[in-house]
Amino acid sequence: MASATAPASGNPPGSTVYVRNLEERIKIEQMKEALREIFSEYGNIVDVVAKTNLKAKGQAFIVFDSVEAAERAIDEVQRFELFEKAMVLDFARTRSDATVKASGNEEEFEAHRRRRLAEKERKQALEALEAQKKLKRPAAATNGGAADANAAAGRPAKAARGTGLKSTNAAAPAVVPDEYLPPNKILFLRNLPDDYDVEGLSGIFGRFEGFREVRMVPGRKGIAFVEYETEAGAISAKENTAGITLGDENKAIRVTYQRQ
Q1: Residue 61 DSSP code
Q2: What is the pLDDT of residue 36?
Q3: N or C: which end of the chain has fewer CB within 10 A?
Q4: Burial 154-181 (b: 16+ CB within 10 A, else e)
Q5: Which of 13, 70, 14, 67 shows the shortest CA–CA distance to 40?
Q6: Residue 49: how many CB atoms within 10 A of its CB?
Q7: Alpha helix segments (H runs only) across the chain
Q8: pLDDT digit string (tens) for 57-81?
Q9: DSSP 186-219
Q10: Average pLDDT in the 30-45 region?
Q11: What is this structure's pTM?
Q12: Which residues have CB under 8 Å from 23's CB, separation 6+?
């Protein structure tokens, strides 16, 4: 394989290689098998990660058991063609779960996993907000465009709306969907069975680090709030309880962060 210089991304050397520009039409299992066969020549592979979601298509991560193996792979495989597309390699920006877990420190692995999940959810929240902003059309730009068009066509402009009237077409402020709210210390529970009370919910959510209390809402059934001492506890609870089924009807509950 021809050697090439790795792209100067500034990512620090690590044992995980980030691969992009992969052929998206190849099935994931077939792609992982091909990657494992190619990269196993350069060292012991701990894991090969490739996902099917739209944003992750065409990308993969090769987790080696040493930084030296990852460096050799990047030097030797850079721009090597796989399924008629040249792979682009770099060191991954962060350590993989498999690398941290291999260190044998369970506490460090849990902290790493929570940070990764928190960062993922923050990114999702920002992306959702940006997507909604793009849907908004500034009223000033729309009105200005209409006035220019009327002037060009020789038509009189419409009378300005009274200051006390509100336009029914005004763009609503962008609202982040509940599922993409950034992490905080309080969880919002919905779709709870009517017979679940503070004691029942505390038995479920009290298992997670930093649990403080469950607060029911007087006069409202099916909803509650759970508070933790830190975001880390709330993140762990949310990841492990979202979608669980409760009650005789096996209702799936919704667990999101409180809107702030």
Answers
A1: E
A2: 94
A3: C
A4: eeeeeeeeeeeeeeeeeeeeeebeeebb
A5: 70
A6: 19
A7: 28-39, 67-77, 97-102, 106-135, 139-153, 198-205, 231-241
A8: 899 999 999 999 999 999 999 999 9
A9: EEEEES--TT--HHHHHHHHTTSTTEEEEEE-TT
A10: 94
A11: 0.44
A12: 31, 58, 82, 83, 84, 85
State which amino acid sits at residue 34.
Answer: A
Bridge partners of 257, per DSSP, are 187
How far is 210 from 206, CA to CA, in rounded Å? 8
Q: Which long-range contacts (CB under 8 A, 24 or more apart) does 70-76 make?
A: 70/13, 70/14, 70/15, 70/16, 70/17, 70/43, 71/13, 72/42, 72/43, 73/17, 73/39, 73/42, 73/43, 74/6, 74/17, 75/3, 75/4, 75/6, 76/1, 76/3, 76/42
The token pair that represents 69 in the structure block: 């193996």
pLDDT at 89 over 50: yes
